[in-house]
Amino acid sequence: MPTSRSYHDACPIARALDVIGERWALLVVRELLFGPQRFSDLRRALAGASSNLVADRLRELQERGVVERRQLPPPAGAWVYTLTDAGRRLEPVLLAMGTWGAHLPPPPGPTTLSAASVLLYLRTTARPAADAPPASLRLDLDGAVWTVDVADGQIHIQSGATGPGDAQLTTTPTTFLTLLEHPERLETVTDGSAVVRGDVQAWRRVLESVAGGQPRRRSG
């Protein structure tokens, strides 16, 4: 059930935690940083949370002005969740937490890795050359499609496909993270865990801009 617990503390930190301090709340925000998501998308990304728990967090975040629910225009027509302006202002908080958490040991046992997590790592560590050819790339991570645009030394990521793109990379979040750290493996993958169609070198340049970027850190 949704909670209305409060620290009853006037400190701004405590007041913020009254809104986003519940378990899974900030991970819901993480998943929405790159654009609207359907409930089923969020449920799949947050594999350790039950449907009821995800629904509760979304309801609380809506009530507190962090998330809103809206219907996409035709022909999609799907209901999605998206961040409000207040929700988007949490991005630097999440990035700072990711930088801090990168120094902690991973949890024991099997772990999950969402697309949003590796995309945050890509966006915060990529250092494309200012004179690199512009490229619009498609990235398919476990069936979810993202557009990665590179131009003028900047990288921009959004959910969905904005066009056919110069190249498409189909892989999993875990394999994509490996390629970000070891771009030389892109052209030697033979087990089908990563498939590139189109301009392979465009993707290679993006991967190398992360491997060569400083400082290197994972977010999310």
Task: Characterise this structure.
It contains nine helices and seven strands, in the order H-H-H-H-E-E-H-H-H-E-E-E-E-H-E-H. The protein is an alpha+beta fold. It has a five-stranded mixed beta sheet with strand order 5-4-3-6-7. A hairpin with a 2-residue loop joins strand 4 (144-151) and strand 5 (154-159). The chain is globular. The model is unreliable at 213-219 (pLDDT under 50).
Structure at a glance:
The chain is an alpha+beta fold and 220 residues long. Helices cover 38% and strands 19% of the residues. The chain has helices at 12-20, 25-32, 39-45, 51-63, 85-88, 91-101, 115-125, 173-181, 200-211; strands at 67-71, 79-83, 135-141, 144-151, 154-159, 167-171, 194-198.
Keywords:
single chain; 220 residues; alpha+beta; five-stranded mixed β-sheet; two-stranded antiparallel ribbon; 38% helix; globular; disordered C terminus
Task: Annotate the secondary structure layout.
Elements: H1 12-20, H2 25-32, H3 39-45, H4 51-63, E1 67-71, E2 79-83, H5 85-88, H6 91-101, H7 115-125, E3 135-141, E4 144-151, E5 154-159, E6 167-171, H8 173-181, E7 194-198, H9 200-211
Parallel strand pairs: 3-6
Antiparallel strand pairs: 1-2, 3-4, 4-5, 6-7
Helix pairs in contact: 7-8
Indicate the structural class: alpha+beta
Strand order of the largest sheet: 5-4-3-6-7
* Number of strand segments: 7
Number of helices: 9
Q: How are helices and strands ordered from N to C?
A: HHHHEEHHHEEEEHEH
Kindly state the percentage of residues in helix: 25-40%
Major pleated sheet: 5 strands, mixed
The low-confidence runs, each spanning 5 or more residues with pLDDT under 50, are 213-219
Distance between the termini: 26 Å
Strand content: 15-25%
